[in-house]
Amino acid sequence: MQLLHNPRCSKSREALAALEERGHAPTIRRYLEDPLSEAEVIELLSQLNISPLDLVRQKEELWRELSAGKILTDADIIDLLVRHPKLIERPILIHQNKAAIGRPLARILSIL
User: Fold this and answer.
1) Residue pLDDT, tens place only, 7-40
2) Active site residue 9
3) Which long-range contacts (CB under 8 A, 24 or more apart) does 46-52 make?
4) Strand boundaries in the chain, DSSP class E
5) What is the average pLDDT across 97-112?
6) Given 2, 9, 14, 103, which residue is catalytic?
7) Structural domains in the chain?
8) Mean residue pLDDT across the chain
9) CA separation (Å) from 28 to 33, 54, 58, 62, 86?
10) Are the C-beta atoms of residues 51 and 74 closer than 8 Å to each other?
């Protein structure tokens, strides 16, 4: 069990607390400090069963700057997620080859 975690994010802290309250001790990956590789992003998308765009924090100013006026392919979006991990939605729990974005928190709990 691994939690892609940003300790500065309240939703990420809530997810960690909820897991710990239920007796789980996930491996924490601070993905901003330890970014995912291209292969890891592709695997994560498969585990989440979503498109690359669905993994993007689209309200993030950096996303608006990088995508403005462009038509981006899935490969382009994956490249941006690798180069700018700040754009990845959070928190994400990976457990038994499944993954869930914790927005809402119940999504994470549903894969346990």
Assistant:
1) 999 999 999 999 999 999 999 999 999 999 999 9
2) yes
3) 47/94, 47/97, 47/98, 47/99, 48/92, 48/99, 48/100, 48/101, 52/77, 52/78, 52/81
4) 2-4, 27-29, 92-95, 98-101
5) 94
6) 9
7) 2-110 (3.40.30.10)
8) 96
9) 12, 22, 24, 25, 16
10) yes
CA–CA distance, 82 with 98 (Å, rounded to integer): 20
The conformation of residue 61, written as its DSSP 8-state character, comes to H
User: From the CB of residue 49, how many other CB atoms can be counted at a distance below 10 Å?
Assistant: 10
Measured between alpha carbons, how far is residue 21 from residues 14, 15, 39, 56, 98 in Å? 10, 10, 32, 28, 21
Strand partners, 88: 56
